[in-house]
Amino acid sequence: MGQGRRDGHTKDTRLAVAIHILTLLAQQTEEDPLTSERIAGSVNTNPVFIRRILGLLSRAGLVASQPGVGGGWRLRRDAACISLLDVYEAVGAGPLLALHHSMPNPDCPIGRNIQRTLLTYFGEAEAAFKQVLARQTIAQVLATAQEEGRSSPSQ
Question: pLDDT tier at 76 (50, 70, 90 boundaries)?
Answer without folding.
Answer: very high
